[in-house]
Write a structure and sequence with these properties.
Length: about 160
């Protein structure tokens, strides 16, 4: 039986977390050349809710159920001197977090009874405090979702650095 996977590439690339025998939908800002598996690519900048709603419609048309969601947010290169004062970057980071949480919420009706989240992040770095906040906030949200849906779904959360 094949697995329905959604790979969300917020930043960085990682194809090793995809299964060979799965149906795959990849959400990314640009085409990822390193993914050698058959997949459906949905290009989005993750900044507009409209793009995510369109992605949800396509996912609903291709998958009756979602078995796995992988989120990759790594390889972030920042200018450490200006990072703490780059308000545009800070705003984009928290807007991205809000949009990903919204996107996961609209996918809930498609969750299989057993769902797995795999999160691939950079290691915590005291210079990248806003990225650390993103990571912790998303993990806290998923843990709350796991508790909220405990009666209807089993959610497994795996965090990789």
């Amino acid at each position: 039986m094949s697995v329905n996977q959604i790979l969300i590439l917020l930043n960085g690339e990682e194809e090793n977390i995809l299964s060979d025998d799965s149906n795959k939908i990849v959400l990314a800002k640009k085409k990822i050349e390193s993914i050698n598996y058959d997949h459906t690519l949905l290009q989005t900048d993750f900044e507009t809710i409209e793009d995510l709603i369109k992605a949800e419609v396509i996912i609903r048309n291709q998958f009756s159920r979602i078995d796995e969601i992988e989120i990759v947010y790594k390889d972030i290169d920042l200018n450490m001197i200006s990072y703490q004062y780059d308000y545009n970057h800070i705003k984009q980071n928290y807007q991205l977090l809000m949009n990903i949480i919204y996107f996961i919420n609209i996918l809930i009706p498609l969750f299989n009874n057993k769902l797995s989240f795999t999160l691939l992040f950079e290691k915590d770095n005291h210079y990248k405090v806003h990225l650390n906040n993103f990571k912790k906030s998303l993990i806290n949200y998923l843990n709350s979702l796991k508790v909220d849906l405990a009666e209807s779904r089993i959610i497994n959360i795996k965090i990789l650095n």
